[in-house]
Amino acid sequence: MTGIFLQTDALHIGYASRSVSGPLNLSLRKGELVCLLGPNGAGKSTLMRTLSGLQAPLKGSILLEGIPLEALSPLELARKRSLVLTDRTDPGNLTAGEVIALGRTPHTNWLGRLTPVDQQQIQTAIDLTDTGFLLSRRMPELSDGERQKVMLARALAQDTDLILLDEPTAHLDLPNRVAMMQLLHRLARTTGKAILLSTHELDLALQTADRLWLITRDGTLHAGVPEDLVLNGTFETAFARDGLQFDRQTGGFRIRLTEEGPVVSLAGPDSIWLRQALAREGYRIRADGGYLLSVEESGWKTTDGQLFTTIETLLAHLRNQLFQ
Ligand SMILES: Nc1ncnc2c1ncn2[C@@H]1O[C@H](COP(=O)(O)OP(=O)(O)OP(=O)(O)O)[C@@H](O)[C@H]1O
């Protein structure tokens, strides 16, 4: 990894009426994908807007390659950082192709003519985001997910060293969410861009981010490699709530449904799907004691020796046995 592209020094973010977070001493390196996470209202959008120059800091400074953000002209800024704001842009009635080409505006000459280099950049952005089939469609006619991909393509066509994206996966289906995160991760690695995105996709962020910036409800920002933030409990503390339990083994959250139902213990290999079904039905799963269920290769065996091959029939049997 090369040097630091973006740095903040004692940065305080927020509004005249309220401070949201600070002091923040953050750095974003070239070639690095950082995911900004935090519960609703923690300050993710406020931080994204402040780092992108759309909102003034309350205090402190932001440096891009050592230059204070406010010292850069709008054109200089547009050559250094691109911005993808998911729901807050109105691209008018332009076609997707025209919107993507607009990404080159900071680089074109005063006539606004696209050179072969501009054309090549645009084509690369289209190929990377798989938006070729949308080029002639008008923006208002696109689905939310399609529009989101076009806005990413525009940012890629802008070809800046820093890309900031506010919830870029918000409207995408699961395969497209995964594809977008993989693309951004690959881009950071192969082109040396510094990429910061805010997201509510905790599991995807855990798997793809080089580092996390995790804002907790009190405005504290924890930065680190995802696995360190999981292992030291920061991740869990930031998101755990009543009824929600973080599973450090799988990196996922599980809904905690009951503290009162009949106790069931499991013998044999662990089965996450059986646990989930039992928890939903209101059973408490313990290491031993209570009603014993054996997990076999061919199904699930109850204490009375019956074998069930579907969870549905097993649950029906348990209901009769344990909830009478
Ligand atoms: N224009 C504003 N004036 C005053 N306070 C604001 C303004 N916009 C947002 N806030 C407050 O700042 C805090 C941070 O808001 P922000 O939108 O940055 O959170 P977020 O982490 O992006 O939330 P979400 O996940 O819900 O999008 C919230 O308490 C919010 O109510």
From TrEMBL:
The keyword ATP-binding applies. PROSITE patterns: ABC_TRANSPORTER_2 (PS50893). Residues 6-242 form the ABC transporter domain. Pfam families: ABC_tran. Transmembrane segments: none annotated. Gene3D superfamilies: P-loop containing nucleotide triphosphate hydrolases. It comes from the Bacteria. One of its GO terms (molecular function) is ATP binding. Keywords: ATP-binding, Nucleotide-binding, Translocase, Transport. The keyword Zinc does not apply. Part of the ABC transporter complex HmuTUV involved in hemin import. Responsible for energy coupling to the transport system. This is Iron complex transport system ATP-binding protein. It comes from Siphonobacter aquaeclarae.
